[in-house]
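Lab notes, practical 5.
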Amino acid sequence: MRCVIARFPFDLVKSEVESKMDGIRPEEVTGACVVIGRKVFPVKQVGEVITRQDRRDFTAGEVTRALVRLGFTCHATPPQAQSPSPSPAQSESQPQPQSPLASGSTPDPFGGIGG
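Output from the prediction step:
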């Protein structure tokens, strides 16, 4: 697919982008990012690899538009890592707080003052 990045035309193919990024370690993601394979890359890193231009020569928006048109999933911010939800066994082993009414005693409406 023909894309213009930093005023230069590029003929990009999804499989070629994937092969160029294969074996490259993703940098820390702090802004716009793209999922390639099972890795999340900053779009500026991908743009630098596929265009062989300095990152200052193009915007993240230009690269994001090109990658979305090729069928990649892009995010404006890094996707949040999902924390594992507790298993039912873990939930049962943790004591749950009980209300004062559950113990069978009636609460003191005056909080122990006077009476």
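Observations recorded by the TA: Residues 89 and 95 are 12 Å apart (CA to CA). The mean pLDDT is 83.
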